[in-house]
Amino acid sequence: MQFNSFLFILCFLPLVLLGYFTLGRVHPVWSKFVLIGASLFFYAYAEPRTLLPLGLSLLVNYIFSKLLESEKLRWRRFFLAVPVCINAALLLYFKYLNFAITNYNALFHTDHALKTLLLPVGISFFTFQQIAYLVSVYRKELLKADLIDYLAYITYFPKLLMGPLMEPVDFVEQLNDLDRKKINWDNLACGVKIFSFGLFFGICFERMMQATGNTVLSMVTQLTGAVINIILDPIMIFGLLGCPAMGIAGAAIATVIGQIGGMTLGLVLNQAKNVELRLHLKGFRPNKTILKGILDVGFPSIIMQSISSVMNVLMNMILLGFGAMAVNVLGVYFKLQSFVFMPVFGLSNGLVAILGYNYGARMRARVYDALKVALIWACVIMLLGTIAFLLIPETLLSLFEAGDARDLTDMGVVALRVISLSFLLAAVGITISTLFQAVGKGMYSLWMSLCRQIIVLLPVAWLLSKTGNVDAVWWSFPIAELFSVALCLLLYRRGDRNMLQKL
User: Fold this and answer.
1) Residue 140, helix vs strand vs coil
2) Which residues of the chain have pLDDT under 50?
3) DSSP 3-state assignment of 5?
4) Within 13 Å of residue 449, how many CA atoms lie on the same side as its CB?
5) Any idea what the Cα angle at residue 444 is, between residues 442 and 445, rounded to 5°?
6) Residue 203: its pLDDT value, please?
């Protein structure tokens, strides 16, 4: 689960906040259980088995933290050094064992097989958190190693964004602050406004430039915001160049400054370079018709983004019946697929601006010409991807160090070859779906996405899984894509009759 995914933003995070503040009003300790449970779910989302090493690490470190509380313990330094070494060893084992084996083989010309390891999500962060907690107990900064507080501190999932920067004492103090169990609407509103201000208007200015064909300028604004954030992060976090060290707050401020910087540049470039559009606030007022048009296009896009996350989760559940290897194959496929699909998605992003501009100008011939050119190039890109997946699947899989994993390679070769048969169909679907979005028929795109990823794909995959052959499951992708394209052409004929022919 990614922090910028719709599944996280629209589902996971709201549920966590709702549970935290609601149950916190019933009893303060219940809010802690919400944080712990949500964090464990977050870590286990990709692979539940990674909870085992995390659980063992939590148990061992907590036992040592209780030992360090004892005033009578003579060798307190020894009992601090032991868990620190254990934590360091676990980190080295999971993250660097295969790295060491690879370099050893290269140096001494040996052929030792790489180990199949389940790398726990965020192992670096919670390892350093474990060490920080032990040190705090050793220094008597924490007078009591409470189990619930300990679990909440170590597992707290937002630390994957902020890094191991929060001291245990500060975290526990905030965790037990009863005022923080209640929603502070002023702080929430202020945070949303600060965070959303630069992000929202930055996206608006980028889309204005894309709509008028200035895609290079749009890219420049995005890069500017990212570069500002990267430069300011270490300065404001660690207090470099005379700036006070602000820790987590510094990272947040750097992000907001980067967003506002990108937004400001977007405004300047729109006013200076975008001759087709000029922003004027005089006479501005909300327009229900315009808002409805925006929602008609935007709302289906939001749902479409969420559908892919749901599909991925349910598809993994189906494949788990064949073992973790099948899930790994699907994950590898999606990574490889992105190299083929991303150019097509980039093409569609440029196409939607061109189609929308010419549709609004009632230039039917240019709409058809742009659609034809985009469709041809999308098919060419997808055809090249299909050829690569059919001819060199082993080479592609080796990019993920799958060469020594025979089972993964054997299963992955079949998966890549079968699923790649849907690429040309996908080229047609993506291109026509872009047309629907450009002319304000976002619901058509939504129905295509539902057909491809939910209505057809999952039931067919489940039925094929009953054959007991994982190779059969991969055929659900071409079958779903075929149904989606059939629906796409049907909707296109309807739209061509009702909209395009009337231009």
Assistant:
1) coil
2) 402-404
3) coil
4) 23
5) 65
6) 76
Torsional class of 440: left (φ above 0), alpha (ψ -120 to 50), beta (otherwise): left
The candidate with the shortest Cα–Cα distance to 459, out of 472, 481, 476, 478, is 476
- List, as one string, the DSSP characters of 33-82: HHHHHHHHHHHHTT-GGGHHHHHHHHHHHHHHHHHHT-SS-S-HHHHHHH
CA-to-CA distance for 131 and 275, rounded, in angstroms? 58
Residues ≥6 apart with Cβ < 8 Å to 141: 168, 169
Contact call for residues 309 and 391 (beta carbons, < 8 A): no
Long-range contacts formed by 309-313: CB under 8 A, 24+ apart: 309/1, 309/5, 309/6, 309/7, 310/7, 310/453, 310/454, 311/453, 311/454, 311/457, 311/458
Report helix, strand or coil for 323. coil
CA distances to 101, 291, 401, 414, 496 from 394, in Å = 22, 50, 10, 10, 43
* Sequence-distant (≥ 6) Cβ neighbours of residue 449 within 8 angstroms: 303, 304, 307, 433
Residue 455 exposed, middle or buried by CB count within 10 Å (0-12, 13-18, 19+):
middle
Residue 191: its pLDDT value, please? 65
Give the number of other Cβ atoms within 10 Å of residue 333's Cβ.
Answer: 20
Other residues' Cβ atoms within 10 Å of the Cβ of residue 450 = 19
- Rounded to whole angstroms, how far apart are CA atoms 348 and 432? 9
Give the pLDDT score at 380. Answer: 93
Question: What is the pLDDT, as a whole number, of residue 71?
Answer: 64
Look-up of token digits 């699947």: 393
By residue count, the chain amounts to 503
User: Dmax of the chain from CA atoms?
Assistant: 89
Using the structure block, give the residue that is written with the tokens 């030992």: 67
Rounded to whole angstroms, how far apart are CA atoms 415 and 474? 6
Q: How many Å separate Cα 238 from the centre of its chain?
A: 27
Closest CA to 449 of 457, 461, 439: 457
- The whole model's pTM is what? 0.53
- 159 CB burial (10 A radius; 0-12, 13-18, 19+): buried
Distance CA 74, CA 225 (A): 54
